[in-house]
Amino acid sequence: MHLTKIIIFCFTVHSLLMATFSIVAVDTTTGEVASAGGSCIAGSIIISDIHPGLGAIHTQSYYLPANQNYASTLMDDGYSPEEIIELLEENDVQNNPSIRQYGIVDLFSENNYGMLYEYECNEIEGAIWYGVPNTGELGECSDPTISRSASFTGNNCSNWRGHINGINYAIQGNILLSEDILLGIEDGFLNTNGSLDQKVMAALQGAKVPGADTRCLDEG
User: Fold this and answer.
1) 100-111 pLDDT per residue, tens
2) How far apart, in whole angstroms, are the C-alpha atoms of residue 9 and residue 34?
3) What is the per-residue burial (b if ≥16 Cβ within 10 Å, else e) of 1-30?
4) pLDDT, average across residues 176-205
5) Cα(43)–Cα(190) distance, integer angstroms
6) CATH 3.60.20.10 in the chain, residues?
C-alpha cells in the first residue's frame, strides 16, 4: 500500500493575501505529498491544502477560503488538476479570477482493484501489488500511479508573477524579483537526490535570494 506523508509546512512568514512563492509536489513511488513555500509577511500557512494519498492544492494571491474549499471538494471528487483550475476560473466566488494564483498536483491511478493477494494481483495485466512479499497477506492492487499538475496565474496578480509545471510538481509565485526565483526553486527540486521532503527543502533553498519577495528588500 502507498505510504502517504504530509511534509511539515515550510513557510517561514506569510501573508493572508499573497503568499509569494510555493511548491506542491508528489512522489508516485511512495505516495508522499508535499507542500512548502516562503514569504516575508506572516499568516499564509492556510493557503496549503493537502489531501493524503491524493495531492495538494495551493490557493494564493488574494486568498479566499471559499475558493480553496471549492478546489478541495473537486479534488476529493476526483477531478484532475487541469479540470480544477478550469472550474476555479469559471466559478470564482468574487467573479475575479484575474487576481488569483493556484498550483495543484495529484496522484492518479486509472484502476484500483482493492485488497488482493499477491498472486491475484499478478494475474491482472499491468497492475502493481503494494503488499509485503512472501507474507501471504493482502495488499493494495492497482494500475501504476502517475502524477499530474496544473497552475494558474491571473493577469492581475502582482509582478513579477508566474508559474512552472513539471510532471510531479507545480511552482508558483507573485511579487517576485524575477522569474529566476521560480527557476531556482525548480533547479533545487530537480537536481536534489533523496526523499520528497529533501527535494522540497532544497527547492526552497533555490529561492534563498535577498528580496526574493520584493516586499522584503528592506529586510535583506
Assistant:
1) 999 999 999 999
2) 8
3) ebebeebebbbeebbeebbbbbbbbbbbee
4) 93
5) 28
6) 21-106+149-216
